[in-house]
Amino acid sequence: MKNLTLLFLAFFGLSFTFVDGPGYDIGETATDFELMNVDGEMVSLSDMENVKGYIVTFTCNHCPYAVMYEDRLIELHNKFAPMGYPVVAINPNDPQVQPADGYDEMKNRASEKAFPFVYLFDEGQHIYPQYGATKTPHVFLLDANRVVKYIGAIDDNPRDASAVEVKYVENAIMALEGGLNPDPQSTKAIGCSIKSK
Amino acid sequence: MRLIIIVSILIVSTGFCKAQDWTLDDIEVYHSFDAFENVLKKKDNFTYIINFWATWCGPCVKELPYFEAMNRSYGDKHVKIILVSLDFEKQIESRLIPFLNKNEIRSEVVLLLDKKESSWIDRVDPEWSGALPITIVYNQENRVFYEKTFHSEHELEEILKPFLN
Fold first, then answer.
1. B129 vs A195: CB contact, 8 Å cut-off?
2. Residues with Cβ within 8 Å of residue A56, at least 6 apart in sequence
């Protein structure tokens, strides 16, 4: 009987996944986590003080699209962390599949680029599936209560920072600051699929 | 002479089959998605296997041989493979073309350079998150979309088969 119940639960869980799709929708509350930063410290969102929101960004070392956005992520953090919206970068890739995204390689890249934000390693890959991240880079803007307010791209021109017309994340933060919901609430961009076995 | 004619007829009738080294002229370049969109909506008697990829995308490069195998096995059975490269404009000659030559790619390759990705990803397929690679198989009757990496020739063949009946 117990087995049958488990089977039922497994089946139900599976069908639910298919119907609803994995990951968060706008308005859902995102999970906190405890992940290792490139400085060796464990970091949780709840550790951060005086925040009004979090720019949770799944990104990595190896993906050209992630690399194209490194400088723009640094700018975002420098502009918005003082306002209470820090960038929280998370590498979701399995280094056994993509060796360039190992923890030591993350430390090197963070130091080369002098990342002003935390760069966390999703060891065991437990966090990115809960968020529903599918690629790098992939942004989830959360408010202070970790409610998902915006999902998607940083701006509308990954390949050419100088030709950007719409800064999605920046606009979304400004909307939150004004007590409004971001518009658009989600966008899409090309990225590298998250590497897992 | 007769041989040449026969060979030419064979080449024409089996669709695209690149035989020599790749040059810039061999690659159709689309600067706007509007111009490209027809590649996804051709109304003829062929079944199209469209793969979005890039030389910088590891999983894409890994699965390319399976698409090449489809080109070899089904190229004469009203099946066309079109590899849609999302390589960067400044890397066409330094990276894309050498890659095509080194790996002896024989399927048709086109290049999509429209930078406003957020405006056209949904037009490729609303299900697409934007991660590479993706594969679309379509003909006049049916269409399927896969945001995944194929792990064998067989796996790809299985999704093609229903289109050939």
1. no
2. A30, A45, A88, A90, A131, A139, A140, A141, A142
A64 touches chain B (CB under 8 A): yes
Give B164's contacts (C-beta < 8 A, 6+ positions apart): B47, B74, B77, B79
The whole-angstrom distance between A57's CA and the closest CA on chain B is 15
Taking the domains of chain B in order of start, what are their residue ranges?
Answer: 22-164
CB contact A93 to B (< 8 Å): no
Q: CATH number of the domain at A23-193, out of 3.90.105.10, 3.40.50.300, 3.30.70.360, 3.40.30.10?
A: 3.40.30.10
Could you confirm whether domain B22-164 is CATH 3.40.30.10?
Answer: yes
Q: Give the whole-angstrom CA distance, residue A102 versus residue A114.
A: 18
- pTM of this prediction exceeds 0.90: no
Mean pLDDT of A172-184: 97
Q: Is the Cβ pair B129, A194 closer than 8 Å?
A: no
Residue holding tokens 């792990």?
A: B151
Chain B: nearest CA to A22, how far in angstroms? 12
Cross-chain Cβ contact B131/A194 below 8 Å? yes
State pLDDT tens for residues A60-110: 999 999 999 999 999 999 999 999 999 999 999 999 999 999 999 999 999
Q: Identify all chain B residues contacting A157, using CB atoms and an 8 Å cutoff.
A: 115-116
What would the DSSP string read from start to end of chain A?
-HHHHHHHHHHHHHHHHHHH-SSPPTTPBPP---EEETTS-EE-GGG--S-SEEEEEE--SS-HHHHHTHHHHHHHHHHHGGGT--EEEEE---TTT-GGGSHHHHHHHHHHTT-SSEEEE-TTS-SHHHHT--EESEEEEEETT-BEEEEE-SSS-TT-GGG----HHHHHHHHHHTT---SSSB----EEEPP--
Tens digits of per-residue pLDDT, B16-35?
A: 666 679 999 999 999 999 99
**Chain B environment of A99 (Cβ under 8 Å):** none
